[in-house]
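Justification of resources, computational component.

The compute hours requested in this renewal are based largely on the per-chain cost of generating structure records like the one below. Each record pairs the submitted sequence with a full structure-token output. That output is archived, and it is also reused by downstream analysis tasks.
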Amino acid sequence: MRTRPSLFVVSILSVFVASPCFAGVVAFNSPEGDTFMSAKQAADNAESAVHAVLVGPTEEEIALGIWSAIPQKTRALSIDVFENGVLINLSAEAAEGLDDATWETMQRQFLWTMRPFGLEERVKVLIDGREVTELLSPTGPTLYSAPTDEERASGRSVELGDVGLSGKRITLCPGHGHYWNGSGWYFERPFICGYEQEDMRNMRVSKYLRVHLENDGAYVQPTREFDMTRGTGPSGVPWWQESAYIYLKDQNYSCANVWANATGRCTDITGAGVTRLNDTIRAKPLASNNDDRGNTDILIDIHSNAYQGECYGTSCPTGTDGMYTDDGGHEPWAAQSISLAQKTQDGQIAAVQAAGFSYGHHGSTAALYGNFASTRMAQRPAALLEIGFHDSCTTDAPKINDPFFQDCGAWGIYNGVCQYFGNTPTYGLYDSEYISDTIPGAMVAGEVRTVQITFKNKSVRWDEAHAFRLGAVGDSDPFSATRHTIVGIIENNDTYTFSVQFAAPTTPGTYTTDWRMVRDMFAWFGQTLTKEVTVSGSGATATPTSTPTQTPLPDPRFYNALQNGGFENDFTNWVAGGSGATSYEILTSGAHSGIKACRFYRSTGAYATIYQNPNEVSGQTWRTSCWAYYIPGMTATEFGFKDQGGNTEASVPINTITWGFYSVDWLIADNIDSQAWGTGTQGVVIDDVRAGPASKMNWITDWIWNGTHDSGSKSTRLTTDYFAADGGEASILPAPGSVNGGRMWTATSRGDGFINLNETIGGSPTNCAAYAHIYVIADTAKSGVRLLAGSDDGVRVFLNGALIHNNDIDRSHDYFNPDTDAISGLSLNAGQNRLLVKVRQETGGFSLSARFCDINGNALSGLTYSLSPILVPTNTPTFTATWTPTHTPTWTSTQTHTPTITPSWTPSWTPTRTPSWTPTNTAIPTPTPVVTHNTAVENWMMLR
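The structure output for this chain reads:
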């Protein structure tokens, strides 16, 4: 019998590869059955490693729950090692109780054991000289199969090389799902590295892939539910998380031939003591063979790999695997399957590398032989793609769980499918379609108006975190700034409308304005909008075409944002308070005693905010700090607090205050359960918000964050350098998607500058620390700068690598106020500056804010912010070339070349000659650049 626990644990489809420092480690399976482990048994060569696998775990390993899928009495009849693989022939005992799940586990044990010896490209296992297809239970008839190479050559089906993917039909399998294991419902893969199971990630990648395939005209036949809005499935999870056999039953596929082919149980989807894992393994390829809606040309199965549980550090395995089967019953499609696996694997890698990710193949660059059900039973070319290692926590896991990485990789797989069919994609990794605009054909000199420009996303998702923007072609435009950013996520097939302020030149004439989508630092892409605009009038004194009218400020409205719920109510429960038409109450009842913020809105979207933290004690009056700040576009003169009787509690002219805190008396009464004025002061009326200067507000609203980090004690958490292995906190140069300290940097944005890390990270982390980073771009060098920061709890701040502030303080529960910490006497360099903020968290609130200002609290002009580094050479290199013709005259040419982007470049230029002859036989010397550059950042490039 096999040395393993009950068959009804969560079953295994892969095992652990040995760490490179244990080149001869033998691969067995973990006690959990769905987290994998290598036994530390050394093997000197491939033959001894095979025998060690057959011997099984040691007594000590068995005591730890480590087990083997191979029966104990199994022997190796022969072991044939060749250049890049091995053929292992096992004795007949290996076939005892053999099923699909056991076979795939056995095969992966040998695959991982052979990897350290460089033999992973082809690990083939026979049992008593027989193919596994002969030993497993039969799969039943195939009603539809794709043509073989010979049949295609004779004219059957659609020929390779057609335009696009129109007419191509693809079975798409999103890996694992939720299934019955004989005693209960389980996912086939666990949570690991803090991310959701592979079962869900496979679906997310597959959804991106399906969109790319269908956009190019392909028909996609799924083997799991792609609609994430469909309700709960029969196993109790959302339909999109159900396993393939459950979905295919729901889609009326044949029981015997597809969804219950292994067990034959057609009356239910469970069964005491009966695992349905073998049903779901078989259901995917058998669905492609028995789909009465039509034949498919290829099958693609999406997965991710496993190592040995949560693995940290650079020694963990990384990269993709593409797998195929080319023998047994699948032999007619052998060459096609190898081509499909290789091209889709290569396509994914090329796409994510082009998108800025450091990524590659795992081990050999060739696709691997993998005798798995989806690539063996499908009667058509088939590939199983392992997109990375979900348990390599510091290398692959952050990437393969990043939606942008997933989408780019999916586009690369689509590109590989096109290459397989002999075509090229009809749209690129980045692509856009111009939809509409409101740019006028004529303007008056000096006129200012807002225009709309709409583009449609035709490829991978856009967002500001990855620098997708509307750009002025040539990085100049006579009417507007050259970059306009995106708010939110714009998925494939979505449109986005940019609101762009156009200011007509003061000199009359006809001007060209042209716009195109760009991913800064990478590429311009898609269609270009080009328009001619005629500017008339006499420059800045021209008369506007219409007289601007001032829109009156609408009545104030306030809403409650509850303490931990994070919701903003939908305006339906607002009620008027006090006697004035513009007075509205903020209730602080028992149910709402955790109110944290109230915002004032108007029709243009401008708002003012008050952050307040009333103590959660009923029946007492408490003085609480409130934070008010100004948003550009408001036209107010006073910010006031009034009680029920209209008496002013606090009233401060906005245009004269130093922005910060205000104190207000609150009476939190017992059991207030209606939004109406009762006896006593139960709320605060905020009234008369009309004006304020824009120079008073400059909170940083966009950051990238990294965390959480939970090692160290409370006393050392703030001072522990979690980036020490990457060069230290003072030297990092992060960007969205990069990794430091084993955690990926992720973009976050909040318009009011209050970064709530509980909301950003999700949940309420405790006893940890997190980082936030931003690049501050200054138009000129600045001195006498002040940085105002707020945090909950302690805070540590670095500017350009120098520690400028450390305040290891505890804040009270959910306490947060901005500008509590002031750091003065700072300087900013002209160009790029690095701001790193580290916040220590114990329990409760987890927040930060920061802004640069002058000594009086006024915002600094000339500052912009970037999530990624934007670099220029530190000086202008000069080159001199001298040569002598074979006859007089002799002359020297000196030219100056100014690079626009990268410090590393080769100049190419031709001096202007006065003589009307061609010098002969004397080569022009190669000029030597005189250039100073920052080697730590020279790999960042801006492509315009």
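Residues 3-22, 539-696, 872-944 have pLDDT under 50 and may be disordered. The longest helix spans residues 334-354.
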